[in-house]
Amino acid sequence: MRDASPGATGGAAGPTTAGPSAASIPALRYGFGTNGFANHRLGDALAVIADLGYDGVALTLDHHHLDPYAPDMAARVATLGHRLDELGLTVIVETGARYLLDPWHKHEPTLLSTDGRPRRVDFLRRAVEIGAGLGAQAVSFWSGVKPPAVPTRTAWDRLVDGCAHVVAAAQTAGVVLGFEPEPGMLVENLHGYEQLAAALGHPAAFGLTLDIGHCRCLEPYSVADCVRRSKDRLVNVQIDDMRRGTHEHLEFGSGEIDFPPVLAALAQVGYAGLVAVELPRHSHDAPGVARRSLDFLRSSEYGPRPDTADPAAAPGPSASADDHPSSEEAACASSTPTST
Predict the structure, then answer these.
(1) How much is the mean pLDDT over the chain?
(2) Closest by Cα among 78, 8, 84, 34 to 265
(3) What pairs with residue 276 in β-bridges?
(4) What is the pLDDT at residue 3?
(5) From 48-57, 174-183, 201-210, 301-310, the region with the lowest mean pLDDT
(6) How much is the pLDDT for 237?
(7) ω into 287 cis (within 30 of 0)
(8) Over the Cα atoms of the chain, what is R_g?
(9) Which of 22, 112, 165, 295 has the highest count of CB atoms within 10 angstroms of its CB?
């Protein structure tokens, strides 16, 4: 069983003007999210991800992928841990399943909800237990969208209280948490994360999940500067392409991000954890998307972004209804509830 550990070394040197040479940059480790393999059995998804050459997997707990409410959890976690070891995959536990807790309402209840908050806390505690059993690099979670009728101060107090319970569980289990700022949610940017960490007293177990696409979507800094700003708390990285002002996870080369400086920044700050591809609406072509994504990232580490317009070199995604974002994901504006 692998050991859980934070993904970054604190106090890493800042960026250099000239940039690092290829020889000086440690190899980044890439993973792929199972929420992009929603039409695969979990075992089959893991096998494909490993066969393609990924170093790890971001496992979204869901009714069809290690259901945290199914019986014999300890035995199922042990079996999965052995399989991950056989495949050589590091694991991150993700908790963003859409309808696991409520079959009618996406992502509900959250830590902000008027009804059902204890159910979300219980789910996150279960995720922590699973993360401990798997030796996960981190357990990732977010705040949720503020209900319209709930005052911001009340929502904030609920969030701090809920996070405190989850942090306590993580500390007891020896698990690192990665809190993810999510566009449209109560905590949607790095400033919000920093405020939340301060409200909790900066516990060591409360790290940061950084989604590279979200940085382009709404942060006031460049994407590479977001990485550098986050270096001391960074325990999990999700990666995808995105456009400014639109919360839509895109295949690499379909958005606006220049990836070589971003990958160089991750290496410069000493990030040693997984950089996991986050494309939750691309399950219709999961093996193809995963293959193209890894090729793109490896090609982007030390050089210009590849020309994905050449269909012979890198065929683009096929058209599908699954490609289009829901109305919730149409914008990154803070006034618009958005979620993955």
Answers:
(1) 87
(2) 8
(3) 31, 238
(4) 46
(5) 301-310
(6) 98
(7) no
(8) 19
(9) 112
Identify the H or E element spanning 246.
strand 246-250
Rounded to 10°, the helix 152-173/117-134 angle is 30
d(CA 198, CA 191): 11
Q: What is the pLDDT of residues 249-300, one digit of tens each?
A: 999 999 999 999 999 999 999 999 999 999 999 999 999 999 999 999 999 9
pLDDT at 309 over 70: no
- Token pair in block for residue 193: 């994360």
Give residue 27's pLDDT. Answer: 84
List all residues 6 or more positions away from 121 whose beta carbon is below 8 Å from its beta carbon. 111, 162, 165, 166
**Cβ contacts of 153 within 8 Å, gap of 6 or more:** none
pLDDT in tens, 106-142: 999 999 999 999 999 999 999 999 999 999 999 999 9
- Beta carbons within 8 Å of 72's beta carbon, 6+ residues apart: none
Dist. CA 313–CA 339, nearest whole Å: 32
Question: Would you state the pLDDT for residue 303?
Answer: 60
Instruction: With beta carbons less than 8 A apart as the criterion, state whether 225 and 198 touch.
Output: no
Residue 18 CA to its chain's centroid (Å):
30
> Cα(31)–Cα(54) distance, rounded to whole angstroms?
5
What angle is formed at CA 264 by the lines to CA 258 and CA 269, rounded to 5 degrees?
130
Token pair listed for 253: 């080369």
Q: Indicate the pTM of the whole model.
A: 0.85
The shares of helix, strand and coil residues in the chain, as percent rounded to the nearest 5, are 40, 15, 50
Alpha carbons 260 and 224: distance in angstroms, whole number: 9
- Between CA 153 and CA 151 the distance in angstroms is 6
Structure tokens at 34: 């199972």
Burial 259-272 (b: 16+ CB within 10 A, else e): bbbbbbbbbbbbbb
